[in-house]
Amino acid sequence: MKGFRKFLGYFQFVAISLLTTAVVVWLAAKLQLVPSDPPLSQNSPSSPTVSTPAPSGDDRSSRPVSPQPDLYENLPSLPQQSSPQPVVPTTVPRVATAPKNFHGHLPYAEDEGSRLVSVGEFVRGTYRRQEYLDQEAATAFNQLLAAATKANLTLQPISGFRSVDDQTELFEKQVQKYGSREAAAKLSAPPGYSEHHTGYAIDISDRDQPEKDLKLAFEKTTAYRWLSANAGNYDFELSFPPNNTQGVSFEPWHWRYIGTQRAAVQFASARS
Ligand SMILES: [Zn+2]
């Protein structure tokens, strides 16, 4: 009898434990109604309806196959402005401390939010997105745009400043898609290694030729020929011309500003 009571007590203990566990699990399940992976802007009504092509090298890559239309579209539209911070009256940019080279990509520090200035919108269909550059590059870029307009061209920015967080999001998608960081690096600069972090690099397109956005075919446009002849007047240069020393594939749409000491310092190692 004593043994039976002991057994009954033990049985009650187990039953209560199981019941408590079940209630806790049920409550936890109820509380987890918020999705762990909130949808990005691709689900928003303002997403572009056009497909964005696959660029190479620093952006995405030279592989002519598999366009990834979601990457640029998912970029946050606003840089993180550090508004309470005063503008630091220095001409020395922050120094990137990452390893010197990641599959041809060089390390770059993120520009200060307080230095970023709008350079207009990337527009495709009903989709619009503000793009930003460092104040130094922005002034020169606006002059370049004005000159292009006089030449009856419709240039527009596709992608200017990009934070390390933006780049992490882009890059991790490539890692998931291609299986490793090494494979992804052939398609996209890893976070911390994009010229776009500096606020001095910008992808340019012809508003009238969306099918050439971020594609090698941009090389065949009047816009590219005009940029090749005139961008230098505004201190912009191609970052990745054919057969560049970094071994990054040719990107006719990707230009960087080198017109001030602060800008030139950023790209000194890339140019040497
Ligand atoms: Zn680019």
Descriptors:
single chain; 272 residues; globular; alpha+beta; Muramoyl-pentapeptide Carboxypeptidase, domain 2; binds zinc ion
Q: Summary?
A:
By secondary structure, the protein is an alpha+beta fold.
What's the Cα radius of gyration? 25 Å
What's the CATH first level?
Alpha Beta
Broad shape: globular
Q: What is the average per-residue confidence, as pLDDT, rounded to a whole number? A: 77
Major sheet strand order = 3-4-6-5
For the secondary structure, the number of strands is 6
Number of helices: 8
State the low-pLDDT regions, or none: 23-57, 60-71, 73-90
Describe the overall structure:
This protein has eight helices and six strands. It has 272 residues and is of the alpha+beta class. It has a single domain (65-271), classed as Muramoyl-pentapeptide Carboxypeptidase, domain 2. It has a four-stranded antiparallel β-sheet with strand order 3-4-6-5, with helices on one face. A two-stranded antiparallel sheet has the order 1-2. A hairpin with a 2-residue loop joins β1 and β2 (127-134). The longest helix is centred in the N-terminal third of the chain and has 30 residues, at 2-31. The chain is globular. Residues 58-59, 159, 196, 201, 203, 254 line the site of zinc ion.
